[in-house]
């Protein structure tokens, strides 16, 4: 398997982060234009208006679990442990972040958001377990 294939789910997640930044800017602009917020509110990131609050929270979520995702992907690639299973799990994680984010910035219903989070969380745990198994078997 091509070891660099693991970078594509990482690129897909980075694209999601960039899209969320754009959406956050649009939602904040809308809040200012409708008079629901003042530009000065965003200087210290206080009193986020309702129009952009879910988007800001979704953006913050992209710098929590995904940090571990990037670390394990880089470790898998560096150790030559990228295989069909690890690549599939990386894609499961990336796709789960898209689903989680979509729910977060629309209905924000925990009932639907939590299962999307859980799928990605379990895929990430599996990636770390597979990395550990590979390292143990190589040592």
What does this protein structure show overall?
The chain has five helices and no strands. By secondary structure, the chain is mainly alpha-helical. The protein has one domain: Membrane associated eicosanoid/glutathione metabolism-like domain (Four Helix Bundle (Hemerythrin (Met), subunit A)), CATH 1.20.120. Helix 1 runs antiparallel to helix 2, helix 3 runs parallel beside helix 5 and helix 4 packs antiparallel against helix 5. The longest helix is centred in the last third of the chain and has 29 residues, at 110-138. The protein starts with 6 loop residues before the first helix and ends with a helix.
Number of DSSP strand runs: 0
Work out the helicity level: over 70%
Return the CATH topology: Four Helix Bundle (Hemerythrin (Met), subunit A)
Instruction: Please tell me the overall pLDDT.
Output: 96
CATH class: Mainly Alpha
Query: What oligomeric state best describes the polypeptide chains here?
Result: single chain
Poorly predicted parts: none
Taken together, the total number of domains comes to 1
Based on CA atoms alone, the radius of gyration comes out at 18 Å
Which descriptor suits the 3D outline?
A: elongated
The main sheet comes to: none
CATH superfamily: Membrane associated eicosanoid/glutathione metabolism-like domain
Query: Hey, roughly how much beta strand do the residues contain?
Result: under 5%
The N- to C-terminal Cα distance equals 21 Å
DSSP summary: helix tally: 5
Structural class: mainly alpha
The CATH architecture term is Up-down Bundle
